[in-house]
Amino acid sequence: MRILVTGAAGFLASYAIPKLLERGDEIVGLDNVPGFGTFAFARTVASKGKAPIGVAADITNPSLPDFFDGPFDCVIHMAAICSPKECNADPMRSFCTNVYGTYNVLRLASKHRARVVFASSGHVYGISPKYLPTDEGHPPHLQDAYTDGKVIGEGMCRLFFEDHGLPYISLRLYNAYGPGQVDGYFVQDTLRQAMRGIVHLRGKNVTKDFLYVSDIADAILAASTSNFVGAVNVGSGREATLGFVGEHIAHRLEVPIEWVKDPDIKDTRMACDRSRALQVLGWEPKVELEEGLDRTIAAAKENRARV
To answer: Which of 78, 114, 115 is nearest to 97 (CA)?
Structure first.
């Protein structure tokens, strides 16, 4: 297939694109990071397939649908402001990128009659949701700028399907982690502290549904060829406390851990029902949490040794 990937310089794309290329797909990657282009893009993506094409562009540009001659068989839309903190700090920028930008991507996909894979979030159910494990029938919950953007994005996907027959699948991704993730996420921030010799954390009893990044990449590949239309949870189905994850990392690196009491932190919970993913995508995670954390720790140690 010929596939357009937005957010091609991002964390998830760095795992998904090599798998797509290995499958034999032709990839056009789009991102607005400084210096992004075909040379920089191809240099960072190991592949056995065709060299990918990199296009520097912003999804908020109203002329986006006219940037590409196409045709595309699929558009994998991962470009977004992914940090809830960043979205809440600047709601206008969040809306422009995550809502208007998604609208432009859908216009582009509609022009090429390309299937859309939309990277949504498990946050659409709220934190905490009404019940656990949470299936796709749970009503969406508007709670902050980040979540609102994902809920509206899913709604626009559905609208383009109903009005223009544009097929789509919304992958409700849970808590991704793995080597190469930027700061600002729990596993990466905890690991960074541990590498410095001590860990100070809050929210010991908070739970998340952590999913290793290569498993997410596999789900994206499955979604790109599926005929299913609608939302699909992509998570491990395992409810894990931040305490368990933090202590695993601290133990592996043999550093002390201190849990700081914070009255402002509520003991929220997350865990998905992933049965639909198995049913419609034939997908289930392969990497257990402990193994994924150990892989992430090993990669961090190796990178430190290179410095």
So the answer is: 78
- Hey, what are 39's tokens? 């040379």
Name which of 239, 170, 190 is nearest 210 in CA terms. 239
Using a pLDDT cut of 90, give the percent of the chain over it: 87
Q: What is the pLDDT of residue 38?
A: 74
From start to end of 78-121, where are the E strands? 115-121
Of 58, 84, 59, 91, nearest to 186 (Cα)? 84
Determine how many CB atoms are found less than 10 A away from the CB of residue 122: 25
Taking residues 27-51, what's their average pLDDT?
A: 77
Q: How far apart are CA 306 and CA 303, in angstroms?
A: 5
Kindly report the pTM of this predicted structure: 0.95
Whole-number Å distance between alpha carbons of 171 and 101 = 18
C-beta separation of 60 from 96 below 8 A: yes
Q: Where are the alpha helices (DSSP H) in 204-288?
A: 213-225, 242-252, 275-281
Do residues 299 and 190 lie in contact, with contact meaning Cβ atoms separated by under 8 Å?
Answer: no
Q: Pick from 11, 8, 19, 66: which is nearest to 223 by CA? A: 19
* pLDDT above 70: percentage of residues in the chain: 96
Per the CB < 8 A criterion, the answer to whether 268 and 127 are in contact is yes
80-95 tens-digit pLDDT: 999 999 999 999 999 9
Is it the case that residue 307 has pLDDT exceeding 60?
no
Instruction: Give me the numbers of helices (H) and strands (E) for the chain, helices first please.
Output: 11, 13
